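agent> Task received from the user: take the single chain below, predict its 3D structure, and emit structure tokens. No templates, no multimer pairing.
agent> Plan: (1) validate residues, (2) run structure prediction, (3) serialize to tokens, (4) report one or two observations.
agent> Step 1 OK, no nonstandard residues flagged.
tool_call: predict_structure(input=
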Amino acid sequence: MARFSHRISLHIRSPGFVIRGDGRLLQQRENRVDQAERLYRKLIEPIEEQLIGTVGRIVRDRDQAADVFQETLCWIWRHLERIDRHPNPPAYILRACVGRCYDALRREVRRRKRERPLSEQAQAAGGSEPQALAADRDEGRVVRQMIAHLPSKQAKALLLRVVDEADYPEMAQVLGCSEATARSHVSKAKARLRRELTRRNVIALRGGAS
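)
tool_result: status=success, residues=210
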């Protein structure tokens, strides 16, 4: 119980959990938490390490990964009964987890875009290379930023296949599509990344020649 409460209940607020003094809602809260704990042990604990690994491999930044994992747990808490009724709960949960990882990548791209003008101004002023610009040269970070610009289904398929190393039958279950569609999403995503990497390399070469 302590483990469950630490992971989830301290981070959730529900109007139904307000105690008004007569004790009835307190009992309601206890019953709801007991039920949620049972469902958590049934649905989440068997795949908990997989979820942690998936978030860590995709997001990479430790603090952001912790936030994404917590967001996923909060979503699970709110939808435990729906998840329990799903024909494939692990796939349903992993789909939600990957979706939140994708959202985190997109937020990071937007944040870096806001910071970039200030960094470029500092560089133009003759200062040392800003850390943000130096980090952009990290190939893995650049690729993750590019993935964040892919269409949602292509991005999630690519993250599952390349980063999480899922096979196509598992991907089809997670994405809710056929294996052929999952393969198509991955193929299209890789093609778009190749084109974008080629374009960036051409621009870099032109910049170096000048």
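agent> Step 4: summary for the user.
The longest helix spans residues 89-124.
agent> Done.
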